[in-house]
Design goal:
16-stranded antiparallel beta barrel, 22 strands, globular
């Protein structure tokens, strides 16, 4: 009996203690389900839904490093003064850039609502001479350059407003897949716009763009905007495009026509011609701000200019790009490069550039005979090596 009583007593005590501990136990709450990012495939790869909204967002950009050598007039070279002797001498032109891009898209009852932004950050020295002055000479020192807002626009359906590049360039296309494509310029870029884009869906498209311009010569000086209009016909073989622009500051009209041909899956070619009226661009003796014959749209020397070139793809990784250009004042440019995709998203490009200043040293009455590339001599040659990681 004593043993049985002892066992029963012990069991009762254990049950009591266990009950007391159970009453004091900490209850761990179940974790709330995580809200994972939802992929949005409506507008292409890389988009995701912003949590709690129907807006799709993509974030991208690139990191780039350029190393240039040669003459200033090729846009690749740099000069400075020796920090000990003060001797004028050539040096590398180097620039590192980080570019941040964002895209958004959302479907609405009025069409697709989109935005695009692009901001660039640069560090390096300058093409030409530097800006750090010591006495009567300058040192071409590397430095953090101004941050630039290259794009910041909103588009609903075909209506686009905000910061963009001029439709005079974007609608007809840039002058080839080369780095130095403006040895003979084909129009200015930065501007605020109010524009409308039409697309019939069968190859025909058009654009009308009201633009503010930029710079002392290019920014509008009244309530009258610059106006750009363009039409395009695109098919599998290529495209035919034309644009016309009115410079409201100097009452000048400029136009460009372009033919793109896809010769094969490996070879594509283009040719583009431009013509611009003088308007008031040449009136340096009476203009408050001298344009020297070159406005926001007609930037080339004289009245006419041309650009031609193409791309040949050797394989999936390697391509050859060429551009030749010239204008009425016998300014010519040649740019050629080899672009190689080391791995997806990482491209190395080696380019050689040539600039010919047609009227160098000549006495001429044409105000547009300016040293556009800062060459300071008849012929300039240079090269640039570019490393770019895009994401």
């Amino acid at each position: 009996m004593n043993i049985k009583s002892l066992l029963l007593g012990s069991a009762a005590a254990l049950i009591a203690v266990s009950g007391a501990r159970a009453a004091d136990a900490v209850v761990v709450a179940e974790p709330e389900p995580a809200e994972y990012v939802k992929i949005c495939d409506v507008y292409g790869a890389g988009y995701f839904y912003i949590p709690g909204t129907e807006t799709c967002l993509r974030i991208g950009g690139y990191v780039r490093y350029d190393i240039g050598v040669g003459d200033i007039g090729s846009f690749d070279g740099a000069r400075t003064f020796d920090v000990r002797s003060g001797k004028d001498q050539a040096t590398f032109e180097k620039n590192a850039r980080f570019t941040l891009k964002t895209w958004t898209g959302q479907e609405t009852e009025l069409g697709t609502l989109k935005t695009y932004t692009e901001t660039r950050f640069n560090f390096g020295n300058n093409n030409g001479y530097g800006a750090t002055t010591f006495g009567d000479r300058t040192v071409n020192s590397a430095h953090n350059k101004a941050v630039s807002l290259n794009f910041a626009w909103i588009q609903l359906g075909g209506l686009r407003v905000g910061k963009d590049e001029s439709a005079f360039d974007t609608f007809i296309g840039y002058a080839g897949n080369v780095i130095q494509d403006t040895l003979v310029p084909y129009g200015n870029f930065d501007t605020n716009v109010v524009q409308y884009y039409f697309d019939t869906g069968n190859g025909f498209s058009a654009v009308v763009s009201l633009e503010e311009g930029s710079g002392a010569v290019g920014t509008i000086d009244s309530y009258v905007p610059h106006v750009v209009g363009g039409v395009k016909y695109t098919q599998g073989w290529g495209a035919i495009t034309g644009v016309v622009a009115y410079d409201s500051n100097y009452e000048s009209v400029a136009g460009k026509a372009r033919l793109d041909v896809n010769v094969s899956s490996a070879l594509s070619l283009f040719v583009m011609g431009g013509y611009g009226s003088d308007g008031k661009l040449n009136d340096d003796s009476t203009n408050f701000v001298d344009a020297h014959g070159r406005g926001f749209y007609k930037q080339w020397g004289g009245n006419w200019a041309f650009w031609a070139g193409g791309t040949y793809k050797f394989n999936e990784k390697t391509s050859f790009n060429l551009q030749v250009s010239g204008d009425q004042l016998k300014n010519y440019g040649v740019a050629a490069n080899i672009a190689y995709d080391v791995v997806p998203g990482f491209t190395v490009t080696a380019e050689v550039d040539y600039d010919h200043y047609g009227k160098f040293g000549d006495v001429t009455t044409d105000p547009s005979n300016v040293d556009w590339t800062g060459a300071g001599k008849k012929n300039s040659v240079g090269g640039i090596l570019r490393f770019q990681r895009s994401f």
